[in-house]
Amino acid sequence: MRMGSSAGGQSGRATGGRGSWAVVPDANTEMAGERASSAGVLLFSAVVFTLAFFLVLGASALITGRVGLLGVACALVAATLAAMSVHIAQQWEKVVVLRFGRFNRVSGPGLFWTWPIIEQNTMRVDGRVRVTTFGAEETLTADLVPLDVNAVLFWHVWDAKAACTEVGDFTRAVELAAQTALRDAIGRGGAAEVAIRREQLDRELKRALEEKVAPWGVAILSVEVRDILVPKDLQDVMSLEAQAEQRKKARIILMEAEQDICEMMGEMGDAYAKNDAALRLRSMHLLYESVRETGGTVVVPSSFSEGFGDVLGDAAKDALSVTRSSAG
Description:
Low-confidence stretches: 1-33
Strand content: 25-35%
CATH superfamily of the largest domain: Band 7 domain
Distance between the termini: 93 Å
Structural class: alpha+beta
Oligomer: single chain
CATH class of the largest domain: Alpha Beta
Mean pLDDT: 77
């Protein structure tokens, strides 16, 4: 398995076999095709060198009245020191400056100067948002299930001084800290919990990493779990468990519905028991509803029609009598 990481100018790779991982940061500080051109910085240094050379050479000629070898040597030394003292940092860069090996200041972005020989530009820190991918292979959960989990980390350096002086390689340190936090988080929960509660795992990883990398001048923006691979055998078992759970819920809902219907039917039975006319009218309504959609015809026996006599009007009674006479 191969894992890649790129972080606003820095990239790394993580390789691992079964149960073992190694994170190896690349030497490049920017992605190919996104590197800032250094032509302007070189041209500016060349201009500074040229100006310093001719200024010192001109001053030497004015003082001595001629251009000698000593004047040329002094001009070369002065131009070299001037070129060494002027620097340009890109918009996203912070430069840590040490004086005689001790921290002095953080310079940049833009043009800044240093004292030649006594001050050094120790590190150029990229302050843009970085994206690092990391993962844990065959990590055991609390219920001893091996999981493969891949995640993405978004972070940036907010304190260049701490990143330079508190940790040797902050990029690799952040990657390894993220991998360790991921393994710890997986080991504290069960397989189902890790697979289902992904957002909770994201928040837990972010909180753990913030506490770990804060002294290094690094801020964690977000952690997002990309993929959780569950063994095939466990997938089948979890699928059966989920199906059983859904059947259980369906049966519970059906029983609750039947209970509600039973209660309503009981109330309706009590109401109809107290009012025979309402029961007969309900019977007529059900009979009408049964034939309305199909347009069929229902033959009502004469003895059955007599049961509606209490709830029908005189006109309806006469109509039923005429119908019986005609049928006879």
